[in-house]
Amino acid sequence: MNKKLSRRHFIKLTGSGLALAAGNLVVPTTFRKLLSPISTAEAGINDPYDLYFAGTDGWFNLPVGPTVNSVYHPDALASDPFTNYIFGFRNVTGITDSLDINQTIVTTKETKIQNQKQKAQHNAPFFWVDEFDPNNPKDFRLQLTNLGLELRPDLTDAHTLHWHGFRNVIPYFDGEPTGSISLKEGTVFTYIYRPRDPGTYMYHCHVEDIEHVTMGMNGIVFVRPLQNGSTIGGYNKFAYNDGDGSTGYDREFPMFLSEIWLEGHWNDAHIQESQWYNFKADFSLLNGRVYPDTLLPNSPVDLTANGSAYSIVTQTDDYGDLKTNPGLERLQYQPHSALVTCKEGEKFLLRFANLGFREASMTLAGIKMKVVGRDATPMKGRDRTDTSYETDTLLMGAGESYDAIFTAPTFSGGSGSSGNGYDVYVLYNRRYTQNDDTADGTQGQRTEVRVYPKTKSLVQQHFNDAVIYS
After folding, report:
1. Strands 347-354 and 401-407
2. CA 312, CA 139: separation in Å to the nearest integer?
3. Closest Cα to residue 159, out of 59, 263, 88, 221?
4. Range of the domain at 166
5. What does pTM read for this prediction?
6. Most buried residue among 53, 94, 385, 418 by CB atoms closer than 10 A?
7. Three-class DSSP category at 127
């Protein structure tokens, strides 16, 4: 009797039947012609890459308080200081061999990468690329490996990287498993892109996508325009190829929105089936953290490491594990702060992306934002009419992104000032259930914009264009 092929079984087939072992395809000639429209489609493990990510599982920390107690939280399987099981990606681009004093290899790069199992990062690493330049053509290549799930070796799901909203990707590199390659455990694949449309996007695993996205395999990615480097209107950084400097800015910062359903995370840790249509967002996160952790510093990073031109490389110890700030060990696998710091008069580009399942209402109280792009599309009509607008609130549906620029107000130093040498403006989700509405203030998409005087000196922080002040 013929059995209907389920989605999960089909995904397994695409991860194994269309075998991609160490970058070598075993695909029938008929399929290869369909899947490989360009000669570079069969990128392998030894080909050059710009970034190298690994998919695996791990643990991270969410606050425990009187209003967020749950039979699922904290998970009894979690070791202190962590509370919840996750899936995720790790940036392993900068990991190298460990050498002793005689330059003899003590631990190989490959061993370190394999040791990243159960060290997933949440949210996934941010990355960015420059718009494809036909006068200086260079493909962007991201290598991905599936390390498998340390806690759940029985769960043999494949992984992919789907660049959500990317307009010109060929199906072979799309990451949607029914029409492209998915990676079974132990395999490696290189995605190749020619990014032609500047703006803010997001990415995620597309295998069992509701589960994998909710479990943490999601992040933000953006494309910088070719216009960057030109001086127009006094700026040399731009959100889009505007031609007139109208999207110029001094610095940029990502704001990635995601959600956590505690029961789903507990079920995956305890080998229980989840009914994902019962999804309930118990926590709403900004850059992988909830308020007030959103205000805490970024984890240590290495901006000189290999691959840093495309991504933030979080510093690692001799074994490749993520480093953390002393006293903040609970945030070891949540390295991204959501705190925005700027000088009065500076133009700041906020890149919002929502990969939660609910609509968000992100409000910057006391400062108007100019919306210059939406879903990686500049706010221009067909006849180039300017359709940008000013607002203090962005209504964002699931899977949507916004590019919004604000000018930092004049530093007051008096009324409205924190007394710590900066003025505070709150950036938060106005939707009651997604803000810090709990009695102990331990949940929600909320952070701060801190405005300093022009005389304050800068100290380079985590994100390449974000700063903190000494």
Report:
1. antiparallel
2. 20
3. 88
4. 7-469
5. 0.86
6. 53
7. strand
The one-character DSSP state at 441 is -
CATH of the domain at 18: 2.60.40.420
Residues in contact with 268: Cβ distance below 8 Å, sequence separation at least 6, in sequence order: 85, 87, 152, 155, 211, 215, 274
Compute the C-alpha angle 372/378/383, nearest 5°. 115
Give Rg (Cα) of the chain.
22
In a domain, 1, yes or no: no
Asked if residue 147 is part of any domain, the answer here is yes
Q: What tens digit of pLDDT does each residue of 268-309 get?
A: 999 999 998 888 888 999 999 999 999 998 888 765 554 455
Q: Cβ–Cβ contacts within 10 Å for residue 303, how many?
A: 14
Q: How far is CA 340 from CA 294, 333, 349, 370, in A?
A: 10, 20, 10, 17
The answer to whether residue 407 sits within a structural domain is yes
The pLDDT tens digits of the residues spanning 107-143 come to 888 999 999 999 999 999 998 999 999 999 989 999 9
Half-sphere exposure of 202 (CA within 13 A, CB side): 30
Amino acid at 74: P
d(C-alpha 470, C-alpha 341), whole Å: 11
**How many independent structural domains does the chain possess?**
1
**93 within some domain:** yes
* Range list of H helices, 226-261: none
Q: Give the residue from 355, 384, 207, 191 showing the smallest Cα distance to 288.
A: 355
Residues in contact with 454: Cβ distance below 8 Å, sequence separation at least 6, in sequence order:
343, 344, 345, 411
Please tell me the total number of residues recorded for the chain in this structure: 470
